[in-house]
């Protein structure tokens, strides 16, 4: 089964908390702080796996969570960092933020790997807070929370040559003749329900990858038929083979079919009409009036397409010559990376300490979010030294500055979860 779109949930690991610990050696009456740092949470990394050809794996597993860093220990023992979570994807996978639809990464090279979410930083143990005036700190830093996101994986096939044409014009037959691919072939429309890839390896030419793109008919760019599902796969092809049934055996006009499909390419993405395109008249073995080939060629030439060839995929007539022409043209068509506009790209938030400040109906400034939860979890605010550290963290992380910008005044109340206190500058 060919799956080319999948929605999944990913989460990086939380950082481990720093430890609060003091030396307790037998002959040391006043041991100093020796709490170790917490370990870093695991990153979520997407890596290209060349052996994968579909996103089928993500149909059955849709949630991926990296491990958390371990907490720090006594005797300045650092908590180990969690292992990164590597998620293999096929070559040609685009990672998008599901909410905005913006592109996070495009994995179009065999050695591509991309860190989509970074694990939370481990917290410092109390040994890191010892100074000449504060020799016994009884507080430590909490580990920072990981990140989470719903993303969309979108696969765009990486093929050198893409086969275009209305259903039943012979695309699958051609693919089966020139490669080891075994697409389903039958004499009815929409026999092919998913893209098929094959490698053309013939004597005297450089091998190349060819793809049969199914279901592109009139209205495909608006969702008619199957085309809207597969138009994206044409975007990465360097050369298009546009196949028409020149015999007209099904009562269709080959020229009109050719024109309509190019209109769909233009409506989907304007630059697709600029892609090098070879026009192929198929089923010449069924054509009784050969003069129609000249008439068709003249019309296509007038539209700006100068390369028109004849073949019969069923009998093999002209097939080898066509593949050699494709191989020769590919040598002069460079592989160009897809360039995205700035408004298509996802820009991550720079602020990793996530919190939100609101004002409730009583005029209380409410600070909430994952940063608040982790901070309160790690501290005992009934302890004066830990309470002083709490206020220091609010200042260092910008919370107090944000409150000032919102107009907080001396004596106003601030609430973080169940903890409430009055503000004084």
From TrEMBL:
Domain OBG-type G span(s) in chain numbering: 159-331
Ligand binding (GTP): 165-172, 190-194, 212-215, 282-285, 312-314
Cofactor(s) the protein needs: Mg(2+)
Alphabetical keyword list: Cytoplasm, GTP-binding, Hydrolase, Magnesium, Metal-binding, Nucleotide-binding
SUPFAM superfamilies from the UniProt entry: Obg GTP-binding protein C-terminal domain, Obg GTP-binding protein N-terminal domain, P-loop containing nucleoside triphosphate hydrolases
Subunit structure as annotated in this protein's UniProt entry: Monomer.
Similarity remark: Belongs to the TRAFAC class OBG-HflX-like GTPase superfamily. OBG GTPase family.
Name listed for the protein in its UniProt record: GTPase Obg
């Amino acid at each position: 089964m060919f799956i080319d779109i999948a929605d999944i949930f990913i989460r990086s690991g939380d950082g481990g908390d720093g430890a609060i610990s003091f030396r307790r050696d037998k002959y040391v009456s006043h041991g100093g702080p020796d709490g170790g740092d917490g370990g870093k949470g695991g990153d979520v990394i997407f890596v290209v796996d060349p052996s994968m050809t579909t996103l089928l794996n993500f149909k059955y597993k849709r949630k991926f969570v990296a491990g958390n860093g371990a907490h720090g220990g006594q005797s300045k023992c650092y908590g180990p960092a969690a292992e990164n979570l590597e998620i293999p994807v096929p070559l040609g996978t685009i990672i998008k933020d599901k909410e905005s639809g913006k592109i996070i990464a495009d994995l179009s090279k065999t050695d591509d790997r991309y860190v989509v979410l970074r694990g939370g930083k481990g917290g410092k143990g109390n040994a890191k807070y010892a100074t000449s005036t504060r020799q016994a700190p009884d507080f430590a830093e909490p580990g920072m929370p990981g990140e989470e996101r719903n993303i969309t994986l979108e696969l765009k096939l990486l093929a050198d040559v893409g086969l275009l044409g209305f259903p039943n014009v012979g695309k699958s037959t051609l693919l089966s003749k020139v490669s080891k691919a075994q697409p389903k072939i039958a004499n009815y429309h929409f026999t092919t329900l998913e893209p098929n890839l094959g490698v053309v390896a013939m004597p005297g030419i450089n091998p190349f990858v060819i793809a049969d793109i199914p279901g592109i008919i009139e209205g495909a760019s608006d969702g008619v038929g199957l085309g809207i599902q597969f138009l994206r796969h044409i975007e990465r092809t360097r050369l298009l083979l546009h196949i028409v049934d020149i015999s007209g055996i099904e009562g269709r006009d080959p020229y009109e079919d050719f024109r309509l499909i190019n209109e769909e390419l233009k409506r989907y993405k304007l630059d697709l009409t600029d892609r090098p395109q070879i026009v192929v008249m198929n089923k010449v073995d069924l054509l009784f009036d050969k003069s129609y080939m000249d008439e068709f060629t003249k019309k296509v030439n007038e539209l700006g397409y100068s390369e028109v060839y004849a073949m019969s995929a069923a009998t093999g007539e002209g097939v080898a010559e066509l593949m050699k022409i494709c191989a020769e043209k590919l040598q002069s068509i460079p592989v160009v990376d897809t360039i995205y506009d700035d408004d298509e790209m996802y820009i991550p938030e720079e602020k990793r300490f996530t919190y939100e400040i609101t004002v409730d109906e009583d005029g209380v400034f409410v600070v909430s979010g994952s940063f608040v939860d982790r901070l309160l979890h790690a501290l005992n605010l009934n302890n004066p030294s830990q309470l002083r550290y709490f206020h220091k963290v609010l200042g260092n992380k910008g919370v107090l500055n944000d409150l000032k910008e919102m107009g907080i005044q001396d004596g106003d109340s601030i609430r973080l979860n169940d903890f409430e206190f009055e503000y004084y500058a």
